[in-house]
Design a protein that fits this description.
Layout lengths: L10 H37 L3 H36 L16 H8 L2 H14 L1 H15 L4
Helix pairs in contact: 1-2, 2-4, 2-5
């Protein structure tokens, strides 16, 4: 008995799988940024690091996570677009080029310049799921003995 070959995965499905894996990696990266921020906070506290320097480092980690979340959001938007295409929604006619593998093209078409990119980062930094963690760290730094 010969094993039957699996049918090839169509390009949109391949892209969906890749972006889904990237989404999980972005979650891991964001968690790593938070863990490093806490470890540096604890090391700074133990070594008596100046509170202002620790606050600046915390803000830098906050912005780094915001940039990771912005990229994750772009990929998430593309995942939703792919899912609608896989359901048969949207333009997918035979005479047009494949709608697969268009993450950067779609993002560049909707990009609103440098200020738009900075606003996007700021919006992700302000999301409660991101901001709460860093606000707590900053509050600990501001507390007596922090």
């Amino acid at each position: 008995m010969t094993p039957t070959a699996l049918p090839p995965i169509e390009p949109l499905s391949q892209e969906w799988l890749l972006l889904q894996q990237q989404d999980a990696k972005h979650e891991q990266q964001a968690l790593t940024v938070r863990i490093v921020a806490v470890l540096l906070y604890l090391a700074g506290w133990g070594l008596g690091l100046d509170s202002l320097a620790a606050a600046v480092l915390t803000l830098l980690f906050w912005m780094q996570e915001a940039m990771i979340r912005a990229w994750q959001n772009r990929a998430g938007e593309r995942l939703l677009r792919i899912e609608s295409l896989l359901r048969g929604e949207g333009a997918r006619s035979e005479g047009t080029a494949s709608p697969a593998f268009q993450l950067h093209s779609e993002w560049m078409a909707s990009r609103r310049g440098t200020m738009g990119l900075l606003r996007e980062y700021a919006a992700h930094a302000a999301r409660p799921t991101v901001a709460f963690f860093y606000i707590v760290l900053l509050a600990l730094l501001a507390a007596p003995g922090g």
